[in-house]
Structure formats: structure tokens, C-alpha cells
Amino acid sequence: MSSTDVPPRTIDGRLTMSGKLAAGIASGLLRDLHAVLASHAGGIVLEHYQAGLDESWGRPLGEVAFGPETLHDLRSVTKSVVGLLYGVALDRKLVPPPDAPLLPHFPEYPDLLAAPDRQKLRIEHALTMTLGLEWDEERPYTDPLNSEIAMERALDRYRFVLDRPVVAEPGTRWIYSGGSVALIGELIRRGTGKTLPEFAREALFDPLGIGSFEWACGSDGVASAASGLRLRAADLLRIGELLLAKGLWNGSRVVSQDWVEASFKPVIPTGDGLAYGRLWFIGAATTTALPGGEHPWIAGFGNGGQRLWLMPDAGIAAVIYSGKYNAADAWVTPTRIWREIILANADRN
């Protein structure tokens, strides 16, 4: 099954939202779950934590008793947070605009800058994973041939990314790439003069009241823009609610509405029935909160079943943390919770 196949409805639809979750867990349909936190119109409508085996960027942590204060890997949901940080930096005129050429901002690679087949690369292509450069993250993240793992082990991670063979015209093909996000993270560092965690704290976490976080770094000391962030479920939900409010938090502007709207605009199909914006997946689903047919949702997806899901039209945000790392069916539990429990049981405002 692909990540866009909808599992058959198996949880009793007559139950309440929390009742459905409890029934799904008790029946064994919802496995490896660590945390669920969802809000609708700004109010918490579902909250659940349970113990389970966990990891921190691949390092086993053993059995963890999860609760409201427990940090959890976001894995590739980190990418979506980094996209948001680029927008904040752009609002401050600290980084180049998305339509700017990419390679002039890496002048240490004059040979690549002069290469005719790389002249068309733009920052927008990195933000939308349409660089057209060879990249393979289909392999397990325990495999050294996985491109993200190879990048982390490379002597120069940015040259490793930018020197990949060209396999498509920039902007024409979506290729999932942690390397694209590494470039975005480095543009933020160069433009702001701060490490990614430093800028995140000052520009995003402090304004939202997020005090506790961790950010894994590679052997070169560089924070992983692709997968290294750890947050409490409540703090990731705050980021989701900031985006539902189009960049406003308690009346203060954190990121421009223009950036949020551009990030959520479908740019290219991903090949599995979804679309991709600026480091966000985009799909559609029905919900009891709204009349009519399907409504768009936006999401950050992470290895193991990590999810930040948003349905802007309905004012719904949901965080799901899971421990099913490196498993092909890790999408099943979060998809069931999102579709069968949250969207299918949300009240109309």
C-alpha cells in the first residue's frame, strides 16, 4: 500500500473521538503510538500519551513513558519547520528570495557554479524538492547508501548535495531529498549568522513560548535540517496553530501571511496522489467539521509515523508521534487517527 491509500474504516464510528482512539488501541489497530494531540478552533479536542520503545535520531532509548513534557523526534517533520524558518528569515531580508539562483550562494564551489547543467538551479527548487539532482532515500536509513546517511558522512555535505548527477530539468520532477533541506538550512545559517537551533530559538520558539527542544547534529557539528529536531507534542501543535493563523501568534506577526500561503500552494505532484509545496505535503479529505466534499490538508511527514497535520478550512491541527521507525507501514496508524478519529468526529463550529 502507498502512503495515500486510505485504510478501510475499522473503528466503530459511533464512539466519541477519545473513545475511538481507546478502542483502536485496545483492538491492536493503532500500534506503536506514543502521543496524539489535536485542536479544533484553538481548543484541545484529543490528547493521549502512552509508553513505547523510542529512538533519538536512530539511537535506541528503550521504553519511554511519554507525557506532555516528553521530547520526541520529529524526523522529517523537521523539514517543514525549516521551511517556516526560511520564511521568517526572508521576511527579515536575511536570505535570498526563492527565485534567486542557488549556486552563487555557495561560492566555494566555482566548478559547480560554472557547470552549464546547474545554471538553472533556484532556491525555490530546493524548497520544493525539484532540484532534479540524483537522490535516493528509498533505502533504509540504516543503509550507508541512503543519500541522507551518505550526506551526513561526507566530508563536505553541501558539495555532496550540489555535485549529485543531474537527472531532470530543475522544477519538473519531485525527488524526495534531505539534501535539498540541508541547503536551505545552510542558507539560513549564512544569512542570519546563527546556527539553525540558535535562529529557531530566537525567531520561532521564543515567540511561541517553546522553551524545551533538542536538535541533533552530524559529525561535523551541523544541525540536521532534514530530520534532527525534537519537540514536545504541545509545542509542535503550537507551530501548527501558528500556521492556521497564517503567521500570527497572540496578535504578533511571526511569519508573513504571504509565506504561509505560498508554502501551502501545490507546486508539483509527488507521484503518490499528493502534491508538494514549500516543504509541505498537500492532500484532501472529508471532515464532519465542514459540509461538502473533500477539503485540503497540509502536513509534515516523518519517519516512524511522525505527523503534523493541518486542515486550514476547518481550523484543525493534529500532532501524532509514533515509534514505528524504518517500517513501510508506519503511515497506517497516523492515517487512521487523522481520517477515522479526528476528521470524522470533529464538530461543526
Description of the structure:
This protein is an alpha+beta fold. The protein has a domain at about 15-70 and about 235-345: DD-peptidase/beta-lactamase superfamily (Beta-lactamase), CATH 3.40.710. Helix content is about 30%, strand content about 20%. It has an eight-stranded antiparallel sheet, sandwiched between helices. A three-stranded antiparallel sheet has the order 5-7-6. Helix 1 runs antiparallel to helix 11 and helix 2 (about 75-90) runs parallel beside helix 7. The longest helix has 15 residues, at about 75-90. The mean pLDDT is about 95. It comes from Labrys okinawensis. This is Serine hydrolase.
In short:
With 349 residues, the protein is of the alpha+beta class. Helix content is 31%, strand content 20%.
Largest sheet: 8 strands, antiparallel
Question: How many helical elements?
Answer: 11
Second rung of CATH, namely the architecture of one domain: 3-Layer(aba) Sandwich
Provide the succession of SSEs.
HEEEEEHHHHHHHEEHEEHEEEEEEH
Q: Gap between N and C termini, in Å?
A: 35 Å
- Tell me the total number of β-strands: 15
Unreliable parts: none
Major beta sheet, strand line-up: 2-1-15-14-13-12-11-10
Q: Please, what is the average pLDDT?
A: 95
CATH topology of one domain: Beta-lactamase
Keywords:
31% helix; Beta-lactam-related; hydrolase; Beta-lactamase; Beta-lactam/transpept-like; globular; 15 strands; 349 residues; 8-stranded antiparallel β-sheet; alpha+beta
